[in-house]
Amino acid sequence: MANMTTTTGDVFIPEVWSKMVLMATEPELVLANLVTRLDSDVAGKGKSIHVPNVSSLAANDKVAGSEVQLQAPTETEVEVTIDQHKESSFLVEDILALQADYSLSKMYSEKAGKAIAKAIDSSIAALASGFSTTYGTYNTAITTDVILDSIEALDEADVPMSDRHFVYRPDVKRDLLDLSTYTSKDFVSGAPVSSGLIGDLYGVKTYMSTNIVKTGNNTDNMLFHKEAIALAMQQSPRVQSEYSAKDLGTVVVVDTVYGVKELRDDFGVLIKT
Q1: Residue among 268, 263, 76, 78 at smallest CA distance from 157
Q2: Average pLDDT, the chain
Q3: Contact yes or no for 112/249 (Cβ under 8 A)
C-alpha cells in the first residue's frame, strides 16, 4: 500500500522563516573610548597632527646672592598621521530586495558599521606591542605579580591614577577569576555585554575585548593611561548608498578616515599572556 508522506508531498510544505533575525555576536568595542581623542584637530583639513611634548623641570636650590638657574629643555613632538581609510560595502540586487522578507540594507549597514568600528579598535590594540615596558610571558596564565608589577611601572613613571585601564582578552578574564585574590563578586561588574567593562583590579578599571591582538597562543594585553595613545577621527563612520542601474541593485558603503599613534611610551604596559 502506497502512503502519502512528508517525502512524497514535500512540494506542498512551506519553509517558514522567523521574523526575528539572529544577529552575529559582535566584539566588544572599548578601546576607542579609552584613549586620547584628537578628532577636533582634523575636523576641517589636514593629514597629520603635531603634538608637542613638554618636559618636566627640576627644582633647584637658590643660592644666596646668585642668579636662578634657568632651564631650557629641547622639546620633541609626536606626529599623528591620518592614514587609515577603511570601508565595508555591499550590493543588494533588486530581485533579492523584492523577494526577501527582511530589510537587508538596514541589517547589513549595521554589520558594515560594526566592521568599521572593529577595525578602529584593532588599530589601537596593535599599538600595545610597541610599549617598551612589558610584563608576563606569552602562552602563560596571568599572575597577581604581573598585575602589580604593571601598576607599579605606571606609578614609577608618575602616571596619574585616574584614566588608567586594563584591557584583556576573555581567556585572561577566566584566568583572573581562577586566582584566589579575586572572586566574581569582587571583580565582575555585571555589564560587560554593553560596555566591555568587567570590573577593576586594585582601582584600575578593567575591560574585556576580543579585539586585543592574539597571534597563535601569544596575547598582547594592555595597561595604559588615556594619554598613552591618541585616536584622531577625521571622518566618523558614515553610510552612503546609491542605485546602480548596470547592476540592478543598491550599493551601500560605510567608511571612515582616522589615524592612531602612541603618544607617551611610559604611560603604557604590554602584558603578555
Answers
A1: 268
A2: 86
A3: no
What residues contact residue 216 under an 8 Å CB cut-off, 6+ apart? Answer: 139
pTM over 0.70: yes
How far apart, in Å, are the Cα atoms of 35 and each of 94, 124, 157, 209, 245? 42, 9, 18, 15, 43
> What's the confidence (pLDDT) of residue 174?
82
Return the pLDDT at 192. 47
What is the SS3 assignment for 115?
A: helix
C-alpha to C-alpha distance for 82 and 39, rounded to whole angstroms: 10
- The one-letter amino acid code at 138 reads Y
Distance (Å, whole) CA 92 – CA 104: 8
Q: Which of 1-5, 70-74, 189-193 has the lowest mean pLDDT?
A: 189-193
Domain boundaries, the chain: 31-50+78-272
